[in-house]
Amino acid sequence: MILYNLLLLLLLLLLLLLLLLLLLLLLLLLLLLLLLLLLLLLLLLLLLLQQQLLLLLLLLLLLLLLLLLLLLRLRLLLLLLLLLLLLLLLLLLLLLLLLLLLLLLLLLLLLLLLLLLLLLLLLLLLLLLLLLLILLLLLLLLLLLLLLLLLLLLLLQLLLLLLLLLLLLLLLLLLLLLLQLLLLLLLLLLLLLLLLLLLQQLLLLLLLLLLLLLLLLLQLLLLLQLLLLLLLLLLLLLLLLLLLLLLLLLLLLLLLLLLLLLLLLLLLLLLLLLLLLLLLLLLLLLLLLLLLLLLLLLLLIIIIIIIIIIIIIVTINTILFKFHCFL
Predict the structure, then answer these.
(1) How distant, in Å, are the alpha carbons of 76, 82, 88, 90 from that of 85?
(2) Where does the sequence pass through the membrane (predicted)?
(3) Nearest to 231 by CA among 156, 172, 174, 155
(4) Overall number of domains in the chain
(5) Segments forming the whole domain that contains residue 100
């Protein structure tokens, strides 16, 4: 619009200059005509006073000179007018070239913006793919966390069962110890009876048998105690292993939680990047719309200039044709 207004101002200034030149030429012609009329009047007076034929010839010569002067003035005026029109035409052509260059620059800028828009769309697609991958990883981590929680529950149940078995074994050991104590008491009693019944052989034999039986029972009880102790040791080892496994699972659970948090942070960052890319896309679209509007405006100005040039050319041709017809 600014270029169009400047163009209109230039055209108006040129037209004003043309009008001023025309007025000046007309004034000069009027002055010449007045001078010629005065000369003619003087000549007429001389004709009245002097020889008539010579004065008539002089009068005809003056009229011819006057006609020649008029024709020359008209030609000069037309030449000036043509020169001004040609200058105006050259200015319009230069302005048209400048507008075409500006149009080319805007087209190049439009192409660059389109390329940038395509690159942003590709980045947007890549970010969307990354988001999908991160979501899949989050789902996998959640599944692993669930599995670890189930394993932890199973391990806790196993620990409880082992603790119960340990309690039972301890109770059995206590019972066996009590039985051993009872048997020892019985052995002591039998020994006392042996001392009292040394004289009777049958009773002595019976007591010996009883002592042997009690010793066998004591050995069996000792073996049972050893077995129970071994079982207790095994159970304690199992408990230790389960506790270690439980600790490892807890550590793995913590690591998975940390990974989950990191993935969530990465997801948030990607979402922010997506928002920024969307904003950039909107800005680029607005710039493209503005460029399109500028291109349309430039095309309109170029069309108007071409129409003005055609009008000027037609006007010059008509003036030349009329002048040629006049001559």
Answers:
(1) 14, 5, 5, 9
(2) 6-24, 29-47, 53-72, 79-101, 107-128, 135-156, 162-195, 202-222, 228-255, 262-288, 294-321
(3) 172
(4) 1
(5) 2-326
